[in-house]
Specification:
Blueprint (H helix, E strand, L loop, with lengths): L1 E8 L3 H12 L4 E4 L15 E2 L11 H17 L4 E11 L6 H14 L9 E2 L16 E12 L1 H14 L3 E3 L3 E8 L2 E8 L2 E12 L5 H6 L1 E2 L7 E11 L7 E5 L6 E7 L2 E5 L3 E3 L10 H14 L13 E10 L13 E4 L7 E5 L6 H12 L22
Parallel strand pairs: 1-2, 1-10, 2-7, 4-13, 8-11, 10-19
Antiparallel strand pairs: 3-6, 4-6, 5-6, 8-9, 9-10, 12-15, 12-16, 12-17, 13-14, 14-15, 18-19
Helix pairs in contact: 1-4, 1-7
The chain binds flavin-adenine dinucleotide.
Flavin-adenine dinucleotide binds next to helix 1, strand 8 and strand 17.
Length: 393
């Protein structure tokens, strides 16, 4: 039976990150992905590598600080994949968050980012409003500009996997995790590939199956603890219009939620929504009412969208957030990553629940810290904050 130090289930950004971190630390690692790399949430995000300005309102300062640090790392190691962009927040007479509140928030954002490159902000002079892609300037009081970064989430995931493979990490794809059984000092992992079941052994199984993580955890015997999480669907639509000046960060006129309107592959991406989801993760689809909600936001700010209907939507996709189970609105819940181990300090199974695209490298480092005691020390091959990530050709 083939043996690995670490077997990882899920080829999204978290699985990719753990594969890279394990390989960089000198461990043997196998990543199992059932469809394609980034075929789950990691190709259906808002594609931002950002500090998360709005998390300041819910007091998630350590998350914002870590995310801004990770943004700086991405800009350094992945310049082909991550680009700093201007973000515009238009403030109208009826906008809830006023310019002075935004500027206080952005000053705090800059401080949490260590006043590094890309933390400057200010008002866009009125004479430049005409360059803002046809933004409605009626009743417009101010436009605040700050900076955050945009990526191609699926390409980023593939680049991290390539980096891991260059360090010796192995990939089984397509291959579906079936079950795992715990042993005293490791775990037997069974997965289906090419129509046959294969069994391998690992010191640690890392469950990075995103919205499927609960299903994966339930296939472990004897049973392990499964954290209580909710799945919350987020839809994006792509509209046939062009925004080129940057990314617009606007309030939905319906409920005040923050929505992004951003350039995406020559068109415009609008998202996102937050709809509780109870079905199978494989079945998630954009709902008509979510598309209407996003169209209404785009129409409200860009008169050029006024005549567009759902028939004009070029592309639509929905992803699932994994959030701690709670009764409060999804918007207000913690975006921190949850890690669960079957035992401490020598875990055989470690689960990653929730988290952010932006934080994949930091999350992977935490996973390696947690599983380190279960693994024999090996000579390190590389440091993940120095490995350059390239767009696959
Ligand atoms: C709408 C939305 C917008 C977001 N926007 C942002 C953003 O702009 N910036 C940001 O930082 N974060 C954002 N996030 C969060 C971020 O996208 C996620 O945290 C991240 O993509 C989760 O990655 P993951 O690897 O945990 O899960 P996934 O990407 O879902 O990967 C899980 C993988 O596991 C595989 N899998 C499942 N079961 C099995 C099995 N049995 N065998 C083998 N493989 C299996 C799946 O096929 C899938 O590829 C957003 C999330 C959503 C939902």
């Amino acid at each position: 039976m083939k043996e690995y130090d670490v077997i990882i289930v899920g080829g999204g950004i978290h699985g990719a990150g753990v594969m890279q971190a394990a390989a960089a630390a000198g461990h043997s690692a196998l990543l199992i992905e059932k469809r394609e790399l980034a075929s789950g949430t990691s190709s259906r995000s808002s594609k931002l590598i950002h500090g998360g300005l709005r998390y300041l309102e819910s007091g998630q300062f350590s998350l914002v600080r870590e995310s801004l640090r990770e943004r700086s790392v991405h800009l350094r190691i992945a310049p082909e994949l991550v680009e700093l962009k201007p973000f515009y927040i238009p403030v109208y007479a009826a906008t809830r968050r006023r310019p002075w509140q935004l500027k206080i928030g952005l000053a705090l954002y800059a401080a949490l980012g260590g006043f590094a490159a890309g933390t400057g902000f200010g008002s866009v002079p009125k004479r430049e409003w005409a360059q803002l892609d046809g933004l409605d300037t009626r009743n417009l009081d101010a436009v605040i500009r700050y900076y955050d970064a945009q990526t191609d989430d699926a390409a980023l995931t593939r680049a991290v996997v390539e980096s891991a493979r260059s360090l010796g990490g192995e990939l089984a794809l397509p291959a579906t995790f079936l079950s795992a059984s715990l042993e005293d000092d490791g775990v037997q992992v069974s997965f289906a590939q090419d129509g046959a079941a294969t069994v391998c052994r690992a010191r640690v199984l890392v469950n990075a199956a995103g919205p499927w993580a609960t299903q994966v955890a339930r296939a472990v015997t004897p049973a392990i603890q499964v954290p209580a999480v909710d799945l919350v669907q987020g839809t994006h639509i792509v509209l046939p219009m062009s925004v080129t000046a940057g990314i617009y960060y606007v309030e939905s006129p319906a409920d005040g939620r923050a929505v992004f309107i951003m350039p995406w592959k020559g068109a415009t991406l609008v998202g996102t929504t937050e709809t509780p989801y109870r079905g199978e993760p494989d079945q998630v689809r954009p709902l008509p009412e979510e598309e209407e909600y996003l169209l209404a936001v785009a129409r409200h700010y860009f008169p050029s969208v006024a005549g567009m209907t759902r028939a004009d939507i070029r592309e639509r996709f929905a992803g699932l957030r994994v959030l701690p189970a709670a009764s409060e609105k999804a918007f207000d819940r913690s975006r921190e990553t949850i890690f669960t181990a079957d035992r401490d300090p020598h875990p055989r199974v470690l689960g990653i629940y929730g988290g952010k695209l932006t934080g994949w490298r930091a999350a992977a480092a935490q996973v390696l810290d947690r599983i380190g005691p279960s693994l024999a020390a090996k000579p390190r091959r590389a440091a993940t904050d120095e490995l350059v990530l390239r767009r696959a050709t």
